[in-house]
FAD assembly factor SdhE
Amino acid sequence: MDPTDAATAEITTHTARLRWQCRRGMLELDLLLSRFLEVGFPALDAAGRADFVRLLGYQDQILHDWLMGQAVPADAAMRRLVGQIRAAMRDDAAVL
């Protein structure tokens, strides 16, 4: 197998895994996280991508509170990422 094909297959598998992890118990979170995976995740650097994976490990209610602006993450990297996701939401809403 060509190394480029192998790398592409690995990225595709990783993205599919993340897409599955974006499926949550709350429809709002499903939509927000899945949309960010499509539009925002590709633009993140390696640290930002690792932070997104870490973010997906939080409970739904915590994520909901952060993304709806009802609470602020204590961790600086999570604050930055939540801000990016919220900005992507606003940008999407402006396009509609």
Notes: The longest helix spans residues 3-22. The chain has five helices and no strands. The CA atoms of residues 89 and 95 lie 10 Å apart.
